[in-house]
Amino acid sequence: MMETYEEAKDWLHQLTKFGVRPGLDRVRMMMEALGNPERNLKSIHVGGTNGKGSTVAFLREPLKEAGIVCGTFTSPYVVEFRERIAVNGEPISEADFLKSAKAVQPIAEEVAESSFGAPTEFEVLTVIAAHYFAWTAQPDIVIWEVGLGGRLDSTNVIAPMISVITNVGHDHQHILGETLAEIAAEKAGIIKSGVPLVTCETNPEILEIFAAAVQRGRTKMYRWQHEFSVTDEEAAANGWSFSFQCSLKGMEHMEIAMLGRHQMKNAAAALMVLRYLMMYYALPLEEKQIRRGLQKASWPGRLDYRETEPPLLLDGAHNKEGMESLAEALQDHFPDRRLHLIISMTKEKNPEKVMAPLTGLNIASCTAVTFDFERAATAEGIAAKSPLAGTTALPDWKAAWEKIQAGAGTNDLVVFAGSLYFISEIAAQCDIS
After folding, report:
1. Which residues contact 144 (CB under 8 A, 6 or more apart)?
2. I want to staple 163 with a disulfide (CB 3.0 to 4.6 A). Which of 45, 233, 284, 339 is the partner?
């Protein structure tokens, strides 16, 4: 039996050997054995390819401002593993993690003996989170971030008040399908009967897939540029200002402190969710609390600017769509800076396609590196397929950082980009934070 947090974490991590095996049977069996804790929670479900974490932050902070206790289940973590399960932004304590893990362990071991086989790390972590939220923390609302896809993701056992699909892009094709339509169908799997959907997706083909799922569920879809939108966009030194238009009720002169034009979409999706909950669930939230919360919202590792020497930007742009947003943000916020790129990604990604949006930027250097992860691509492999001329390979990000530090100018900006696991390693280990 586990007696310490480290033992509990080690037990959970050893489940990684079972890999990714999409499906809900094992999670449902564990939830049922625990008394279905997920049914005791008022939940919001957030899926999509990019922008899930930022949308979670834009939801959480206004709720906190209103004194509404907010649990979050997110992935991956940036600095500390316990961040993945948090209340009001504070990670679950080691003692509470151990308590919930001890409750789940014997049930997970029973499931492993069934015909469904051993549960995966993410499945067990989802159940630990539900146990903690329902029986220990008891927050007013829990925001669940989809791990992968949607239809067969562990979080899809919840019954939310409202769901969000931020967008659909090219990611995890080896599991979700090669085409956007196939990926969209998987993500649409979180759409449930009677539960409305908020989405920032604009591709007509994808919206048709969502609309069909919404119709089957006899519910409603709130779409970007239809039921909600933003106007009067204006870039600021550390974020954006805009007005929010909505079929329920808009708000003028909003401000966010996240870089990147795309963050206005994520903020608007969160605002649409909050407006819906205020209207139909009597969520006790005032406009001044929403404004303060949006201004305070941040998400480490996503266009995360650090005043170092030279300054740096961390961004988990791990697919083509993410790199497009990064390139747009660099042009909006740092148009006159010489850029030094340090890139890493997982081996299933094609560097030529993923990095293509970065061509045309004011790039002084581009260095490919690897990182400590079983699916990390080699630095040489990334450099060989890079569309950026002169891309070099170095063994790790520290070597690249030291090389750039030695020759960077005062107006230069170092950009770390790629896998979120790569960004997490930098944020957790580096002394430049």
Report:
1. 43, 44, 45, 46, 73, 155, 158, 160
2. 45
